[in-house]
Amino acid sequence: MKKITSSFIIILIITGCTQKSITVDETSLHGSKSTELQILMHKFDNLIYQHYESELDRDRRRIDYTKDMINIVDELVSNSKKLKILPPKNLTKEEIKNFLIFSNTLEQKSKELKLIVNSYQIEKINPIITQLNNICVNCHATVR
Amino acid sequence: MQQYVKIIIIFLLFPFFLNADENLTTYINGLEQRIKILESKEKSKGIVNLTSEDTTMFLGGKVTLDTIYVHHANGQNGGSNRSDQFFNANNIPTNTEGENAELTLTARNSKFWIKTRTAQVNDKPLMTLLEVDFWGSNGTETNSNSHNVRLRHAYIIYSGWTLGQTNSLFVGSSKPHTLLTPVDDVFMRQPIISYKKEFSKSSLAISLEQAESVIMTSLGDKTTINDDKAPDMIIKYENDSTWNEYSISLLLRELRIDQEKESSISDYTFGYGLNISSRIHIYKNDTLTFGIVGGKGIGRYMATSFFPSVVINSKEKLQAQFSWGTHIAYEHWMKNNLHLNIALGKIETDNILNLDNINKSAWSGHLGLQYNPIKKFLLGAEYIHGERTLQNNNTFTVDRLYLRASYNF
Questions:
Q1: Cβ contacts (< 8 Å) between B408 and chain A: which residues?
Q2: B189 touches A: beta carbon within 8 Å
Q3: What is the pLDDT of residue A19?
Q4: In chain A, count of helices (H) and strands (E)?
């Protein structure tokens, strides 16, 4: 009886400490975060059509939206790093390699955006967002 | 002999080698010149570095052409067609005698702005904005349409403070994306002193703003009395996330009349108002926008002073009038650059005075399509139906078709 109990406890500890594998939840998290990112980019682009808002009001929103985008990109990058540890079966080695390259580029862009937001250089945000968008589009075209 | 032949050949070909070298040098110089031009273009995209310390100036604006077909036309404003060019409840005509449809084109919605940013040590930068449009005094359509420039914004943002002329904090943060706003539009641009505290997803701001009282006399005439002694005070809370955003504004104000020559009345009262506006993402980029505003003595803050803030009642005292308004709008994106808008707005007041020809209510319906062939270039069309009802229940209508082309530079 003791053996069974101790084995059960050991199994619980092992499963508790083991890294979570890439599950359907994480794929759907990637999907929902991608949608959220697209919405933010769309909102960013269409700020100029808000009634009455002055250019400085728009700048404040540009900063807020960019901060939200940075958070999402960081979540996407963090999520993608799990692939390195436990690669899903439906992706080939080549696809995983490409995915991680895109993920590293995303991380780099996120760092660039953080510097820009902290120094309030709003005019530099848009080109980076365009690059972010291109990375996402290329990654989805290559990996999916 | 062969040696001589070689020397002669080399001598003859030498200029060609020399020329090739020269050509290469010219080519490289040309390339360097082109790189320099491209680099300078990249650096100066609408940005000018000023001589004042750490200040950068940015220029921008938009050029707009509005084409408007109105039925019935207003027939006012001495040939400028100002009332026909802009839609609000006041521009729904109550006397259409001799007025049928009218076509008018205008570029007055064009704008120009200059903003500056000055870096601060351990703080957000100091920012300023100066913005003008062409809704100043009217030109006429007869010859040159020479409309004058008008001040829109002129303000400074420094360390959470906003000082200068800009939108009132009572203005909601979420407006429908129609070309023109529904009749309940809460709009006010005036000198303000405000302080804002920002949190991660929200902000709380308080402001003292320019006071002005629009008073209705016992005969139903609206007058603006320059007797204000206390500023209007507004508190605004804003919350913004990817999927929804909302703002709540609370207004408190004093309304005063002080020994005017004509009426010899000296009195004051208080007004208050609440404005809530929100936008929710229903599906991807599709949004539902709604707002509700109401209060006593808020007249000039909604529907371009369609209702008075206060009236002089039968006891010759000031009495704040209750007014309210609401709107709901849906924006459906068919493609990334094409979307459909539908919106409804309504306003109503509880008239204190029992007069036939004063405004009781109004509503408007908007249906429009907006298309961006390229980024920042908008082509839009919108149909608007508006109705205005007086206290005696007489109702007047207007139908308008707007076509807009605009480019933000």
A1: 48
A2: yes
A3: 40
A4: 5, 0
A51: closest chain B residue by CA: B175
Amino acid occupying residue B353: L
The separation between CA B129 and the C-alpha centre of its own chain, rounded to angstroms, equals 14
**Residue appearing with tokens 């207003």:** B74
Query: Helix crossing, A125-143 with A55-85: angle to 10°?
Result: 30
CA distances in angstroms from A41 to A132, A140, B94, B239, listed in the order given: 10, 17, 45, 19
* Element housing B282 (H / E): strand B266-283
Q: Which of B367, B269, B376 is nearest to B312 (CA)?
A: B269
For tokens 């490409």, what's the residue? A98
Burial of B153: CB neighbours in 10 Å, binned 0-12, 13-18, 19+? buried
Contact (Cβ atoms closer than 8 angstroms) between residue B184 and residue B302 = yes
Q: What is the pLDDT of residue A131?
A: 92
CATH code assigned to B61-109+179-408 = 2.40.160.40
ipTM comes to 0.83
Q: Does B281 touch chain A (CB under 8 A)?
A: yes
Task: Give the pTM.
Answer: 0.84
B186 three-class SS: strand
Cβ atoms of B118 and B125 closer than 8 Å: yes
Highest mean pLDDT out of A5-14, A119-128, B217-226? A119-128
Domain edges within chain B: 1-43, 61-109+179-408
pLDDT tens, position by position, A50-63? 888 999 999 999 99
Look at strands B202-209 and B213-216 and give their pairing: unpaired
CA separation for the pair A54, B187 (Å, rounded): 13
